[in-house]
Amino acid sequence: MQKPMKTNEKLMIRALKGEKTERPPIWLMRQAGRYLPEYRATRKEANGFLDLCYNPELAAEVTFQPIRRFGFDASILFSDILVIPHALGQKVWFEEGTGPKLEALQDAQDIENLTLENLHSHMAPVYETVERLKEGLPEETTLIGFAGAPWTVISYMIEGGSSKDYAKAKSWAFAQPETFQKLVDLVVEATSLYLIEQINRGAETVQIFDSWAGVWPEWALRKWCLEPCKRIIQSIKAVHPDVPVILFPRLVGPSYKTFALESGADALGLDTTLSLQWVREEIQKHVTVQGNLDPLALVAGGKALDQSIDDILSHLSDGPFVFNLGHGIVPQTPIEHVEQMLKRVRGF
Ligand code: CP3
Q: Tens of pLDDT along 132-178?
């Protein structure tokens, strides 16, 4: 998949399209967030977290913050994956300190009550944020739109919040696959429309977060994670064939290869657990890879951080590659460690 050609596209886009770039582009999942004092200050101005997501001025401001401070090669729209259930009519709120809460779906009737009708009007402020970002970002910075993958979003819709074992959501899928499929179909459609509109408004690539993909038997992973993501990617490509798509099927182990071969994604986000040698031999031939520094190595800093970075770069920088974390940055991350990381990756 390695292409020697050098187009005049941005560094990040060239890497996503399969080029081995002169240096790896770098950005971080959750790069806008509580580890930044400027984020905490803006967060106070908003009326709660969801309000921040739906306030184009403030959402654009927190998206710009890590770009101003660190000059990352890509900027990810500030929002949340749970705006989709909210737009479908489910109650969603964030409690300080405990994370997201939803009025959990209980039965088939609750699914029937959800509707696509208000999707675009509900998302209007998010689309406006995308337009502001397009307008205000440095010209070399790539704008990333995003959404949650259907399974990861649905896990919240059925559990009513975060979960350790996804017992309610998985039991529903095993016991009543027909109604579960209806919910998947609805979320596939909403997510496709939402991502296409983000691209229409200026997103140059999109990432689909399947953060909780790693909990299924192989056949169910295919049915509830791979197939829905593949349908979303096909819908996007039907309208925007040249826009690269990044998929993050976290913790699926050897099934990363199935996702590389069958999902239609241009790039896969790697979690922290994968063998880098295996990724180099089995995955990077087929798609661009992105990752996979352990967020806690970034917290630790020092030698552990330098060694982790060198290990990733020495294995993956010979092919199409984007440097990132293996999961979102955590609030206790020291800013100096982010600077140490940037210096090392850029100097490699
Ligand atoms: O990457 C970015 O900078 C863009 C913004 C972004 C947020 N959430 C902001 C956020 C993105 C891409 C997400 C994705 C997201 N949201 C995922 C998938 C990625 C992953 O990390 O696995 C998931 C599972 C969610 C759902 C969610 N949102 C949870 C579980 C929580 C609570 C946990 C926490 O960190 O507090 C959130 C809240 C959230 N989303 C915050 C931010 C900055 C913190 C809220 C705050 O400021 O109080």
A: 999 999 999 999 999 999 999 999 999 999 999 999 999 999 999 99
Is 80 an annotated catalytic residue? yes
53 within a domain of the structure (yes/no): yes
Residue 325 lies in a domain: yes
Q: Per the structure block, which two tokens stand in for 279?
A: 């990724």
Residue 309 CA, ligand 1 centroid: distance in Å: 24
Identify the domain containing residue 20 by its residue range: 7-346
Separation of CA 164 and ligand 1 centre (Å) = 17
Q: Based on the structure, what is the number of domains in the chain?
A: 1
CATH number at residue 37: 3.20.20.210
Spatial distance between the Cα atoms of 94 and 100, rounded to a whole number of angstroms: 4
How do 142-148 and 205-210 pair as beta strands?
Answer: parallel
In a domain, 331, yes or no: yes
The verdict on residue 1 lying in a domain is: no
Report pLDDT digits (tens) over 229-257: 999 999 999 999 999 999 999 999 999 99
For 25, the token pair is 């582009």
> Which of 30, 102, 137, 209 to probe ligand 1 with, by most ligand atoms within 8 A of CB?
30
What lines the ligand 1 site, CB under 6 Å?
29-34, 43, 49, 76, 78, 80-82, 99-100, 146, 148, 162, 209, 211, 328
Helix axes 177-201, 227-239, angle to 10 degrees: 30
